[in-house]
Specification:
seven-stranded antiparallel beta sheet; 33% helix; 24% strand; 30 strands; flat
């Protein structure tokens, strides 16, 4: 007698790793299949968005997904119920929406389930509470997809055809590239300004106690000091030597330092870059593994962290109670604050998901270390420590500020001493540009009126510094602060502009390439809105309004496209006039005799034979500048590094190793005799600056905006 097969409930997730974990949680009555991401998308070979028919979208099955869909369809035909359990965000909602249509499920049917951590409790609870599709999320995803397709597929071919083969543009990537280019321009325009500090070590004695205070000149004759030359610094030092010093004022205070909130996607990428030297893409790859599930010894597959694409710092009440119970047990009752720590997210942050946190606070990094790869362990430990520390008591410091002087000369001393470690016992946040930390020591027992002696006086020269180049971490922060992109877009945006050759990394810093600067210039001239940060941020706000049901998604496109189409038509007319043609050089090809032409490559200009592909000869371009090598007197060459940065080096290399990032000039410094370099500033014009950092003599050659005579 044939047995009737028991119908199972079908659950569709995105990744095989997640499917493996969920199968264990739901048991025999369920069948779990993975879609492996999107199953439908716009065709690569066509625009796929029809502006003439109210932006109708043409979706097709993604190549390579046929077998996956066939397997899902087969399981769906025999399933008792179907649940769509893709990620809880816009992309995940769109994937479920496409699967609804592929499987013929009514959009109004409550088959969509959502969980924010891959744990047994979360998954089982989600299955008990299915909901309808969130069409706000679906429409926001469609609007974003259409905008990106219109920008990419309309501008990229235009740049390719009119300007140079291989150029491309993107809605968010072009803004990110412009930010890097603009920062480089700020650095190039920067003219350092000299200033001086006067550091004074003061000693004193009270009975048998001796003490010393490392202080700094703060004021003279009641006015705050701003010293701009060595002469001023020496004059100030002379005033200090003549002064009869005593402690004029003493202030002791208690300072509390609060912990940082748990991670958002952005802050995790930034901190992983600083502490672990992870790129944004590496961080997202590893944290995705932690979210989807790790096969733990004795436990099976477990999701270790909550959903990883979020800009919220909120945590659930259950997680809050768990960590507040764990802290006194693990660290002692003094490390638990009386009230829970409450954090506010940034303006416009989406609060649909929790912050990134461990799914089980009792699952310490050390307890699962043997089941994790090195990268997984390091990132899980970072997330775990940040989360637990976020609910620990503040660190407490005793601070001491003292004013030392004689009524006319005023020196300032500041010191601090940590009296209670609080959350710093477990975790301290990093910064992009780590400065030397305040040295902690026992604070001196000093009182007002004590006599002091200036044991040593050291004038110290400084120069103002240009803004720092972006790191991946600081670029992510800048994108977030300006409202460019969303948590899911930061990593792919940076990866894209690097892979296209628009920017490059060098010792964590991001530099624009010559190609990136050229494309940005064209975009600024012809598609100013596309590379405008405010315009792009406002577009993100409009997409949020679509998700919230406040705006029709096609209305966003109707408002955007007419102006964009006008810019396209104008660019089609204008760019033709500035089409970059191969410039013929005076260098003959040493293989076929044709006059070589200048080509633009990923690393700048080079010489190539015009008879390509029959002749593939290429040569680097040797560009000499009108200045001798300061080291050996030979000619200097303008070069481009492997990281696409322009620099100047001696033609005698490797015998002579002189190099300079700034362009040397023939004239010597009239003050110290060192070589000088040329700097250009948008406000002051061209400036000649001494390369000797202890001199830094400068002279303005021409004021910006001044016409040549």
């Amino acid at each position: 007698m044939a047995t009737t097969e028991i119908k199972k409930k079908l659950v569709i997730v995105e990744s095989p790793a997640k499917a493996k974990a969920i199968t264990r949680y739901l048991g025999k009555g369920y069948k779990v299949e993975a879609s492996q991401g999107h199953v439908c998308d716009l065709p690569k070979s066509q625009l796929g968005v029809d502006p003439d028919h109210d932006f109708e979208m043409k979706y097709i099955t993604i190549r390579g997904r046929g077998d996956i869909l066939a397997r899902i369809r087969k399981e769906a035909r025999s399933a008792k119920e179907i649940y769509f359990a893709t990620d809880p965000d816009r992309e995940g909602e769109a994937i479920s929406w496409h699967l609804y249509h592929v499987l013929g499920v009514d959009e109004d049917k409550a088959c969509r389930i959502e969980f924010h951590e891959v744990t047994k409790k979360a998954v089982q609870n989600a299955v008990k509470h299915p909901r309808k599709l969130d069409m706000g999320r679906v429409d926001a995803q469609q609007a974003r997809r259409a905008l990106d397709r219109l920008v990419g597929y309309k501008i990229s071919p235009l740049l390719w055809a009119k300007v140079k083969k291989g150029l491309s543009a993107g809605r968010v990537q072009s803004v990110a590239t412009r930010m890097v280019v603009d920062r480089e321009q700020e650095i190039n325009d920067f003219i350092p300004e000299e200033f001086w500090d006067v550091n004074v070590t003061c000693t004193g004695k009270e009975g048998k106690r001796c003490f010393r205070l490392d202080s700094r000149l703060a004021a003279i004759d009641g006015a705050k000091v701003r010293l701009t030359s060595q002469e001023e610094a020496e004059a100030a030092a002379a005033r200090i030597r003549k002064a009869k010093l005593s402690i004029q004022d003493v202030k002791r205070k208690e300072k509390k330092r609060m912990p940082a909130p748990p991670f958002t996607t952005s802050s995790l990428q930034q901190e992983a870059s600083r502490k672990l030297s992870f790129t944004t893409s590496r961080t997202m790859q590893v944290v995705q593994q932690l979210y989807e599930g790790i096969d733990l010894a004795g436990e099976g597959t477990q999701g270790l962290v909550t959903y990883i694409r979020t800009d919220s710092v909120r945590i659930s009440e259950e997680a809050l109670q768990a960590v507040r119970a764990w802290i006194p047990e693990k660290f002692g009752p003094e490390y638990l604050p009386e009230e829970p720590m409450i954090y506010r997210g940034r303006k416009n942050a989406q609060d649909a998901h929790e912050a990134i946190r461990p799914t089980d606070v009792t699952r310490t990094p050390e307890s699962v270390r043997e089941s994790l790869s090195r990268d997984q362990y390091m990132l899980y430990r970072l997330i775990y420590h940040r989360f637990v520390a976020s609910q620990m008591a503040p660190a407490v410091y005793e601070t001491l500020t003292a004013e030392i002087g004689d009524g006319k000369v005023s020196l300032r001393y500041y010191g601090e001493h940590k009296t209670f470690s609080g959350f710093t016992f477990l975790y301290e946040e990093s910064t992009d540009d780590e400065q030397e930390q305040q040295k902690e020591s026992t604070l001196p027992e000093i009182q007002q009126g004590m006599s002091m002696t200036a044991e040593s006086i050291h004038p110290e020269q400084h120069f103002t510094q240009p803004p720092s180049r972006y790191t991946e971490a600081s670029l992510v922060r800048a994108l977030e602060e300006k409202g460019i992109g969303r948590p899911s877009t930061y990593a792919p945006t940076i990866s894209t502009i690097i892979s296209r050759g628009y920017v490059t990394r060098e010792k964590k810093r991001i530099f624009p390439t010559e190609l990136g600067s050229m494309v940005t210039g064209l975009m600024e001239e012809y598609f100013s809105d596309i590379v405008d940060t405010e315009f792009t941020a406002e577009m993100e706000n409009r997409l949020d309004e679509v998700e919230e049901g406040l705006l029709n998604w096609k209305q966003v496109l109707r408002e955007f496209y007419p102006g964009f189409e006008t810019e396209l038509k104008e660019a089609e007319r204008q760019i033709e006039k500035i089409e970059i043609r191969d410039e013929v050089s005076d260098v003959p090809c040493d293989q076929c005799g044709a006059m070589m032409v200048y080509k633009m490559g990923r690393y700048g200009k080079f010489l190539a034979c015009p008879n390509f592909p029959s002749c593939r000869n290429t040569k680097p371009i040797l560009t000499y500048i009108d200045a001798p090598c300061p080291k050996c007197g030979k000619r200097l060459l303008e070069k481009v590094s492997r990281k696409n940065r322009k620099f100047y080096g001696c033609e005698g290399y490797p015998e002579c190793d002189f190099v300079s990032w700034d362009k040397p000039i023939p004239e010597k410094c009239p003050q110290c005799g060192s070589y000088m370099v040329e700097k250009r500033n948008s406000r002051q014009g061209t400036v000649h600056l001494c390369a000797n950092e202890t001199c830094r003599y400068r002279e303005t050659v021409k004021t910006a905006g001044e016409e040549d005579e």
